[in-house]
Amino acid sequence: MTDWWAPRAERTTRRLLWMRPSRPRAEPALRIRAAVPLPAPTATISAAMEAAEPGRSLLRSPIFLVSAVSNVNVASRAERDNVSMETQPPAPAAAADPSITRVRPEPAPVPPGPSLADRLRSVLAVPLRALLPGDASLLEWPAGLMPFQLDGVRTLLQSERLLLADDMGLGKTVQAAAAIRIMCAQRTIERVLLIVPAGLLDQWRRELHRWAPELRAIIVRGPAHERAWKWKAEAHVAIVSYETFRSDAVSIPASASRARVWDLVVLDEAQKIKNREVDVSRAVKQLARRRSWALTGTPLENKLDDLASIMEFVDHGDGGEPRRYAPDARLLDRHRELQLRRRKSDVLAELPAKQMITIQVPLLPRQQASYSRAESEGVVRLRERGAEVRIEHVLELITRLKQICNVDAATGESAKFEDIHERLGTLSDEGHRALLFSQYTDDTFGVGAAARALSEFRPLTYVGSMSGARRDATIAQFKSDTSHRALILSLKAGGVGLNLQDASYVFHIDRWWNPAVERQAEDRSHRMGQLVPVTVFKYVCIDTIEDRIDRLLAGKQQLFDEIIDDVSILPSRLTGDELFGLFGIDAPSPKGYDRTQHRSGIALEDRCAAILEARGWHVQRTPVTRDGGVDLVATKLDEVGIEQTMFVQCKDHAVAVGVEVVRELLGVLPTERPTRAVIAAPAGVTRDGSALAERRGIVIWDERALAALEDRIA
Amino acid sequence: MAIPFRDLRPDDGGALAGYLRFVDEDGGRGIRGALFIVNARGEPLDFTFSRVDVPASFLWRAGEARRHAVASLVASLFHACAQTPALILSMAAEVHPRLFSEDIRVEVPLCRIAEGVAVVHAADESPEPLADGTHLFWLGASPLADSNARRLLDALVARHLLLEPFERTVKGIAEAFDGS
Q: Do the domain assignments include residue A590?
């Protein structure tokens, strides 16, 4: 620029001194315009416009219009990115007047990065606020969005990587659909892959049709030849189930799903990929993509590894290559950066309350007899197995007993169904309808049995074995025909994604191990659009296995509530010791460790406390049921008078404890000051756990170490 | 009509609005300008930009040099622009009232806009206050109620887009001259 500026200024000055003041002359204008009207994709010439002389050139870029989204999408990406260039003669006045100093900037070197046309297209685009749902929006929206949802849409629009982890029922689907629509309208994206649970395929298409009517969405399903052309179809959004996607991606490495670079890949109910070792997890992370959004209300169901796997999808490399996350502090830091999570209590003050009621019912006489017989026989069989007994054997017995708690198959007696029948009768008379969840789908103990017992309420059933079309028809029928007073769903198939605000009462016929799963199911009803309070009934048969499990889970539930939003470990599953303990049986001991010496976790705490106190530590115990991941907190002053703190977690398990125990302890250690941490696990720690503990400075006290410490005291 | 059809597009007559903006370069030695054409929905259609040196000579009266520089710039922009807007809007603070009465004669409705500030307007301008405090100063008479210009103006106002394209124009100018 400097080169041409100086001589021109000199010439101009000279002319002004000896002639009349020269009228200033503007540089011949440059023009960038959109190709209108659509869909005339003008004959474009891909050219490096930056290399042209702006003074003689007229730039034309086919900037498409938001209003003609349907036409825009006909154009290929190549057409969009092409920039045409035409030669424009200088302005007549300038050409005729020889006194005019024509400005001829030096041809600019071709800069890296986007072209001027691209940059102008970006800054001149219709502003986001004019596209968001609202009274003055340029796009027609079927309804308004709540402020927090608008924030969510804005965040999605600004994020190439996002874990949208709003509470269930806050409208993650709507937010994603609106963001996809706006990005398509802005031509930021053109091809979206949406991977959803099979039961939600049609619901997603309906939502897209409602919230983004001009977008073409296609469900990839059906026989292989049909899927083949669907993958290649010119659609804005390809919707596919996890199962179909896995099948196509794994069995056909060159399938269209993997051959293409997706502008955006969205995983709905992203907890489906919580296990990084399954095919579908690996396949989604291998997708070439520019943006990754994961939608789930429960990014962490059981352990930090769940989150790590989801984050590996969300936080893709710039080239789309997969990243690997270990469940450690780096994961949590990155998670905080990429997660958007809003809780119902924070954003939906107007959402009706959810009332939880635990119904404790005694078994009916003959049902009780069957139950007692099954339990005593089962325990005897467990004991007979001796050292060969496995957790699977315990789970088998638990399942059997839980099923009897639902229905005694021999007599047909069911205390739960009787109670539900009575309550449903009252509710039905009052005009209410209900959702009932069971983890069993069969006709003997589960959904089918409940439907039979409650037939007078014309219940509909919804289970995973039904086809997608039939499931959709069932939901539609329940919503449209209020004579069906109940919808009975399997917890697995109906627990996620459905919008069932038509019912305000939820019954958990039986209990699941994980509170998050139950909560998801309840939120089918307790979600946006619900106008009346939701009441949740949870059934527990008194003095049964359900009663014992419920007590064990109660402590964990509180811990869940405290830490789920801080992304800590969720120890919602029962340990092996706890499972065996349900029947008063000790878990088998590993070689080299005689558990008979230390029969409970309390005993181990005592042992560790004695060791520490003998070494001058002041030991405090945390509450048994709410230890927050730490059993003992020991303090003492060092030589210079500074207080030292040691946190001890005691794990008196039958087998070596896993890496999750180390992570659990890491998750609760204070970060603001250096601390010592110990895991006391007589049976030892697995190799992974030991490695992590060593890296993070956590000391392991196995049986040998404990014995050595005790020897020194003696 | 051989093929019966209904045109479902908004009935704004396809009218376009031209937004004129000018930005002084550092030191006041030059002026950058752009004419940004949008439709009634604020969608970008055409962007024409240029610059001009402002003569720094004692032969020019104060203010006159800038006015003539702007006139020259406007002439260049209008010449290059291939679209014919139904309405041209400019900022009252940037455009001298005599520019479009003495230097440049425009054949389409044109108004200068002021956001709630007192603005000196020429005798041949028709002021029109809007409900939100914005003032329009029409060159000559304001457009009639059923004219394309009026419908276009109403559509932009209804969508809160009367002033917003001015902001985009400035961003476009910055990007065109300073972006990389």
A: no
